[in-house]
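Section 3.1 - Work completed
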Amino acid sequence: MRRGTRIGCRAVAALAVSAVLASPATGPARAGPMQDLAFTQHPGAPLPLDARFTDTAGRTLPLGAFIDGHPAILTIGYYDCPNLCGLEREDLLHALSAGGLKTPADYALIVVSIDPAETVALARQARQDDLARHATAGAERGWHFLVGEAGAIRRLADAVGFHARYDPALKQYLHPMGLVFATPGGVVSGYVLGVGYRPGDVRQALAHAAVGQSVAASPVLLLCFHYDATTGRYTLAVEKLLRLGAVMTVLAVGSLLGMAHWRRGR
């Protein structure tokens, strides 16, 4: 991820958790409003455990073999991503570490590329980079960075309500940001959407998944969109979040000043 992107993304990470920009879509992705790319939450839906994916060791196995009877965290995105995908994993891994969660005892991490053109080599490099920043005991058994064919990716995306649309001009898929949690039996348990994940939220979602509870999340739409290196501008949802953050800051400062004035008057 480019340095400029990371700095800008971190500025909006906390806002992404609470900013409700759109309701979940009710149908498949299509050419139209960006709101159509929001997750359609499917708590209680079964994952396609027979769909086959290839891991960083070159093994092609059913999805169920990677879950292997553990509560699972699923994230879908890019490995060679210039935008938010790396930030999503960075925030998740930080939350897992800060929350004291262990793998594979507490969770299995399953990262899946949305792009069938991405290779095992890219997945392997992303995994190595993440481990270099977040050395984690048990990752050899609990962290699975996967690639797959288009059919397998589509089955998984449909099961969890993940919508994406390929933009020929940008030469990338536009897609939402968020985590999907699954039970040890491979059933969708819940979602944590946006970025800027808090350790308590991740721990709670895993606790629900471990006992088979299904919980819907508040709708949040943050897209992994493009960063324009020419203009130095972020587009679409990120800009909206930055504007929302500015408004929220002004309101918060105004409220504090008003309270201080009221207390001084008393």
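Second construct:
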Amino acid sequence: MKNILNAPFVEEMKKTCANMYRLGWDERNGGNISYLLKKEEVEEYLDTTNVLRTIPTGFDATALIGEIFIVTGTGKYFKNVAEDPETNLGILRIAQDGTTAELLWGYKDGGKFTSELPAHLMSHIARRKVDPENRVVMHSHPTYTLAMNYVHELDEKKFTHTLWEMCTECIVVFPDGVGVLPWMLCGTNSIGEATAKKMEEFRLVVWGMHGIYGAGKTMDETFGLIETVEKAAQIYMLTAHLPRVNTIKDSEMVELAEFFGVKYRKDFLNL
């Protein structure tokens, strides 16, 4: 059996966590990632009949029974993932009761998955109904996106429109827009349910005064979605206090979206 530390999905988690920490998106133990794995690729590295221990998830994930995820741990710092993945990450399978996680690898210090796991599982369920190929849910605290929450109205049409105006690529990268939630208590099923509801429409959901959730088919796609929002938010925060001399017009956004063949939220434009 191959060495699990060399598995591509472990390498992806290590590199992504290190990158997110380096960018300042995931200070201390802020942020979390869950990545749906293919059973056959996991079986190259682990004996999936060997369950190390079971952990209640706090959520009925019946729709995900048998699915295997690699998930960041609760209280773990992203900066430490690359150096010690077996302590800071875990590979788990949703048990037949739907409410228990079977630990197959990781959390070797006796730890467990992120406290946001119920919110992640709810978002996986919601996104897979829209896109069966969705495999990644990512939560982080990008600096400029968070700063923008304090000076911009938290209305998803207006928030999305402002971001679309900041970079030519934005309407092409996230043509479905950005969902927005007001401030809510984190680590609860309530915020998970609200996020999952938004995930029926959006791959990106802003948690007011907290951070952002992103979902995608791959780690790169999901990271890239958040990265593009963060760049747009940065440009907004650098220019919001200055007179606006130029902007990308709504007619030009339509031209962009139609040229690149993306399905965009026409109701988020002012035409």
